[in-house]
Amino acid sequence: MDDKIYILVVEDELEVMDALIKDLEEFESYFPVEAANNADEAREVIDYIIDHDHKIGLILCDHVLPGQNGVDLLIDLQNRPEVAKSKKVLVTGQAGHEDTILAINKADLDHYIAKPWTKEDLEKVVVDQLTDYVINNKKNLLPYMAILDTEKLSDAIRTNQMTDH
Amino acid sequence: MNAQYKQLTSVIIGVIGFIIPFFLNIPGLSEAGHVALSIFFIAAIFWMLEPVPIYATSILVILLQVFFLSKQGVLFPEITGEYTPNSYTDFIGTLANPIIILFLGGFVLADAAVKFDLDKNLTRVLLKPFGSKPKFILLGLMVVTAILSAFMSNTATTAMMMTVILPIIARTQTSDPLRIGLALSIPFAANIGGIATPIGTPPNAVVIGALSTQGIDIAFTEWMVLAVPLVVIVLFATWLILMWLFKPASDRVEMDMKGVFQKNKEAIFVYVVFATTVILWITETFHGIGSSIIALIPVAALSLTGVLDKEGIRKLPWEVLWLVAGGISLGISMESTGLAEWIITSIEWSSFSTIFLIIAFSLVAIVMSNFLSNTVSATLLIPLAVSLANSGVAGEGFNLILVSLVIGVSASLAMMLPISTPPNAIAMSTGTLKTSDMTRAGFVIGIFGLLMVTLYALFYWPLILN
Predict the structure, then answer these.
(1) Rounded to a whole number, what is the largest CA-CA distance in chain B?
(2) Other C-beta atoms lying within 10 Å of the C-beta of residue B125
């Protein structure tokens, strides 16, 4: 069970990126965090992670990026089966109505965080999304009990056949 | 890399263990016994070091026995003076042993209960009378956990009860020992409660399966009469021990369980089937219909009505049934080849008193189960006990049922480490307690359990069994 679950942050403004990374500190020892400044870099990072047989659990994506924008990136990523299962969250203040609808309909968007965000809100979203991801993609849920939604994980264990032996 | 290295080494050790007896000539042990010893070695090594899943080792055991020890196998096609080869159907037949069918019925019922939230709703109702004082809430949680785990798997019960206590823990001060008491009470109560009925936990299946191959059938009722008094005392003592080690600082705990009993047709049907089956099981001695036969009722009823569908059947924990079957199968070959008897006669048993033997078996079972799977510990020890009792070497009081019970019950009382049982692992993973907390409490309870098992084996069980 060597595969790690990554959190990918896609954001071009350095200060915002730093703030996001800082808010994700507590998760780092369980979920390594990788950063990308634009869509192309994001793809490179994703390739690197997939090639090393790891998984991407969560993508926190800004919308206004140099080059391809966040929503289009997320829509494209739906074509990659390994990334289709990842949880996708838009972190932005500048996605218009139509772009957001596109993201929901075509990119399987899981959540939308409007800037500016609070640390508590971000943490809650990360915990919720990763809990769902882990329940649907991992057999052994115990390593995540301490950091993610313990109750939800316990309930999944209750119904998901961890057995006596 | 480290894990792969360990895995490879374990496999090699196991294979070496398998090969060695083929090159030995142990006096007093038949040729078939040597083969059985080979299988025993690789099974024990693979079960203890776990280079492969324990249920896979169980199937390997059956394969090796069919291949090397059965009439249809390569080594013993004819009856010899030393060994009457089992038909291969004896070995593969363990997969449908009545105890396996009984457990299947239990699994189906438990699954349906979880699916319709019966476990959660029952918990909510049963906890109400216990009020809101921490010590009584703790007692209530333990009693409810034990009752549920007697009929459901200890692990599923623990997972469910975690969802009940986590909100309480979240609302309790970090410095309050109540948090630790709560977190430990659930796995402990689950492990202890599993002893109460035949279907409570897999080691019980190994006991019953081994006895049935010796021609002894224990009724559901009989098991409960033997086990429940022990369970009650050990549970109560555990409650006291946890309160003593982790005295609650607050004087009020809010229990806020929400939920309603599902009232749709399927749910009602499940409640009826559940209640009927349990009642029929508990009253087995009065109506005489075997519990394995009763077990077919929920399986049939729930499949016929679609409550148990194809997906549900596939999701049943078949690997647990394989695990138990392999254990029963190993016991068969150890008996019929004379291996178990040879192991027994190598020791001067007559110099040991009955009480010493009881304590010894109980202690070994508890220690082993702390580090290994409880089912594996029972599987490795029970054939020895069976042979010991059969050979008459150990004296009058050494009833076969008695000593098997001692081992089977003791195997469930090992709770010192996170690896001891899956419920322990779940509790540990929540991050609300330290390993040292678990070990301290588990040690005291283990000692008390050992004492109780010994007393019961000396006074109460012989009373019931005769």
Answers:
(1) 73
(2) 13
Pick from B163-167, B313-317, B422-426, B462-466: least confident: B462-466
**pLDDT tens across A109-138, in order?**
999 998 889 999 999 999 999 999 999 999
Instruction: Give chain A positions within 8 Å (CB) of B408.
Output: none
Please answer yes or no on whether B429 and A162 come within 8 Å at the CB atom. Answer: no
Shortest distance between the Cα of B63 and any Cα of chain A, in A, equals 21
Contact in structure between B82 and B338 (CB atoms under 8 Å):
yes
Decide if pLDDT at B204 tops 90.
yes
Minimum-distance CB partner of A157 among B119, B167, B426: B426
ipTM of the complex: 0.87
Q: B136 - beta bridge partners?
A: none
Contact A162 B159 (CB under 8 A): yes
B408 has pLDDT over 70: yes
Percent of chain B, pLDDT > 70? 98
> Quick check: B283 and B220 in contact, CB under 8 A?
no
| DSSP secondary structure, B57-108, as one string | HHHHHHHHHHHHTBTTSSS--S--SS--PBPHHHHHGGGG-HHHHHHHHHHH
Cβ distance A164 to B421 less than 8 Å, yes or no, reads yes
